[in-house]
Amino acid sequence: METIIHALILLSVVASHIIILCHAQNTTLITQTCNQTPNYNLCVSTLTSDPKTRYAKDMRDLAIIMVLHANGIATKTQNHIFGLIRNRGIAGLERQLLNNCYQNYSTIITKRLIETVEDLSAKKYDFARDMMKDVQRSVNVCEGSFEKPVKSPISVDNKAMFEISGVAYAIVSYLK
Ligand SMILES: *[C@@H]1O[C@H](CO)[C@@H](O)[C@H](O)[C@H]1NC(C)=O
Ligand SMILES: *[C@@H]1O[C@H](CO)[C@@H](O)[C@H](O)[C@H]1NC(C)=O
Q1: Is residue 111 part of a domain?
Q2: Residue 112: inside a domain, yes or no?
Q3: Which of 44, 61, 131, 148 supports an S-S bond with 116, CB 3.0-4.6 Å?
């Protein structure tokens, strides 16, 4: 009995390795795709760190993975803003601007990213491209709304968001 169990365990380990080998990441596809973007290193590191990349057949699949990453960063940013708003030490104009950014992230940015994934799935590339452009614009408006003397407490998040959506925009723009 024990031998059979050992054999089964061994078999499943071998099988899972075979599956992984069959789905090695297509480095040519990743390189070709990331060469179209303004941030090659960010593009490559984002794609290679995602297990879904193994199953990507073409540039469109990689575009979808990148947009999903942008959505993850948008969600993290929203959570960060939410935490700041809950902090009683933040008041007045800073609180108001953070509230606006929170609105922008929840209603505009996240919604558009989900629509972008839907458009990409339906091969509506022009719509997807316009959506990604709007996402970048909204991130800029949020960051730019902070003016002296109120320093943006979410610059790092907005910068990360702007960069990843710039990479996603470039890939989406390349699709035909
Ligand atoms: C990898 O991507 C290249 C470029 O898109 C493509 O020509 C090639 O067929 C792909 N290879 C595999 C194993 O899917
Ligand atoms: C961001 O949200 C605020 C408050 O809801 C709104 O007035 C503003 O137009 C939004 N900005 C963008 C770029 O959508």
Answers
A1: yes
A2: yes
A3: 131
Sign (positive or negative) of CA dihedral 27, 158, 70, 49: positive
Q: Tell me if 108 CB under 6 Å of ligand 2.
A: yes
Ligand 2 mutation target, pool 98, 99, 101, 103, most atoms within 8 A of CB: 103
Per the structure block, which two tokens stand in for 167?
Answer: 């990479």
Q: How far, in Å, from the CA of 108 to the mean position of ligand 2?
A: 8
The two tokens of residue 53 are 């990349």
Q: Does the pLDDT at position 139 exceed 80?
A: yes
Is 10 inside any structural domain?
A: no
Average pLDDT, the chain: 89
pLDDT, one tens digit per residue, over 70-129 is 999 999 999 999 999 998 888 889 999 999 999 999 988 889 999 999 999 999 999 999
Token duo for residue 11: 């078999």
